Amino acid sequence: MSKHAGEDWIASWYASPEPTWGDEFPFLTNLPEKLNNQTIRQVARISLGGQRVRVELSNEYGKRPLVIGEAAIALTGTGSKIVQGSNRKLAFSRKRSIAIPIGATILSDPVELDIDPLSSVSISVFLSEETEPTTFHWDARQTTYIANGNHISDIDIDADTTTVASMYLKRIFVDAPMNAGTVVAIGDSLTDGASATVDANTRWPNFLANRLVPQNVSVLNAGISGGRLLSNVKGINVLARFDRDVLNQPNVKTVIVIIGSNDIGMPGMAFAPTESLPAADALIAGYRQLIARAHARNVRIIGGTLPPFQMYYTEVKEKLRQQVNEWIRSGEFDAVFDLDALSRDPDHPSRFLPVFDSGDHLHPGDAGNKRIAEAMDLDMLLADRK
C-alpha cells in the first residue's frame, strides 16, 4: 500500500479466503445456502492497535458481483453486541454501497477509531441483494451472527442464525506506529486453530501475538484447515497462495511455515481416497520454492517440523514424515522451529504428549497452542534475514 504523510498502514488481522466445496470433501461448509436482505456481524481480534482502521472484503471466489449494501466497524462488546458510540460506517471509494466484481477485493476508506492492541472489533455487513456465499473462511473459531434485515447500526443483533465460519472478511489494517512489522504464520489446521476454543482466541498465532505486540509486530494467521503444500483438497495449496497470503502483506518481515501433514496423511483416506503418497523429493522441492520466493523478497522464513499425526498413522506415512522432518532440520530454512520435538511423547514418538493433545490426536488444544507460542524464540523470528 502506498503511504501518504502520517500513514503507516499495517495488516493487524487476516483470514485466508477459501472457496466453498461440494461432495469432494466430507465436511459441511456451515454456510447458509443463500443470503438476501441480511446482516452479518463478525468478530476479529486484532494484534497491533491504532487510531484509524480500514477493512478489506473479498469476492475472490464469487460467481457474480457481490453487492455490499452497507458495512460498519465497531469495538466489540459481548456476544453480538458492539460498544455504544464506537460504530463507524465504512465507505468504499467514498461510496456506502458498492458491488465487488467477481474475483476482486475492496478496501474501505480510512475511518477514525481508537483500537487498543489485542482487542476485538466487530465488522457488520449488510447484503442488500441475494447472494450465494462462495468466499469464506471455514474454521474461523469465532461466532458469526446473521440476522434478517439491515442491522448495521444496532448495538445488539438478535441473530436468526449463527455459524463459526466467516464470510467475505479478509483483512483489517490499522494506522500503526512507525516502523511496525509483520510476522505471518502459514499452514494447515494446526495454525488455523482447529480444536481451539471458539470465541477464546487460543490459536497459537493468538498467543504469539501476545508476545510480539510489545515489539511493535503484528501476527497474521494464514492457516487453512485441511490445507496442503502441493495440491488442493480443501482450500488452495500453499504454493499457490504464498504471494497473496504472505509476500503481499505490508512490511512482512518473517513467515513461519508449518505445512505438509495433510499432504502425507490424507491420501488413501476419506479426504483423498484415490490419491497416492507424494514423494519426499516432491515435498522438499515445494519447501525449496517457498524459501526461494521468500528470499527473493528479503523475507525471513522459518520452517516448522511436522508434529505426530496419530489419526493418519501408518508405518509408511510415519516414515515419510520422519524423512521430511530430517530435511527441514537440515538447514535450508533461515531457522527451524522443531514442533515435532516439542510436541511428541518421548515414550511414544508417533503420538502427541497428553498435555499437548486436544483429544483428537492430531491437533493441539488450548494448552498445546500456548506451549507452541511460548517455545518460539523471538530473536529467531525477528532477526534480519541472512
Automatic annotation (TrEMBL):
* Gene3D superfamilies on file: SGNH hydrolase
Residues annotated as domain SGNH hydrolase-type esterase: 185-370
One of the Pfam families matching this protein, by short name: Lipase_GDSL_2
What InterPro entries does this protein map onto? Answer: GDSL_Rv0518-like, SGNH_hydro, SGNH_hydro_sf
Q: What is this protein called?
A: SGNH hydrolase-type esterase domain-containing protein
Organism the protein comes from: Paenibacillus sabinae T27
Q: Which lineage ranks, top first, belong to the organism behind this chain?
A: Bacteria, Bacillati, Bacillota, Bacilli, Bacillales
